[in-house]
Known about the structure:
The protein is mainly beta. The chain has no helices and 17 strands. The model has no long low-confidence stretch (mean pLDDT 90).
Amino acid sequence: LPRGAYASPDNLGMVGIPSQVEVLERWPGDHTLRHVLVHFQASVPKDGEALYHFGDGGRIAPPTPVTVSETTQTLTVTTGPLRFVVRKTAFNLLDQVGLDEDHDGQFSDQERIVAPHAQNGGVFTPRSSAGPVQYDADRSDLLVTVEERGPLRATPRIEAPALLTSTTDHLHGFAVRLYAYAG
Length: 183
């Protein structure tokens, strides 16, 4: 973007459709926006084309924005029709998943497609005699952050460090990003 043109991403977005703007870089000196990343959900008809324009006429939110809520124990992301829960104290990828099939905004037990279970997550099977099988759900040293939180897209990141005492006494580490989109 031209130096000095935009101090904030608040009014930037795709013209006429929902979008989300992330600041990537600012100009040195005046700290105005230099590079931005724009997320939007494109739709192109079969064998067709679509033309989109970026502008500063104000951002449009999706009809049902992505929401993220947190407690000390869980992180919950709702995209509209889908809700998933990540446990912060014992990682098993997706602790719970619900699909709002009747579109009432509620996630009943009948709409649950993944129920909590200690073995829902990753299983690390070491090579012969290199230690016991490890379940990600046994990890309590997790760092859970939300790298991106917006109306169109949210990105939780879950990570655990590798802990090496010896070749037969160690815990594997991991980092996972989950990308959730509105709708």
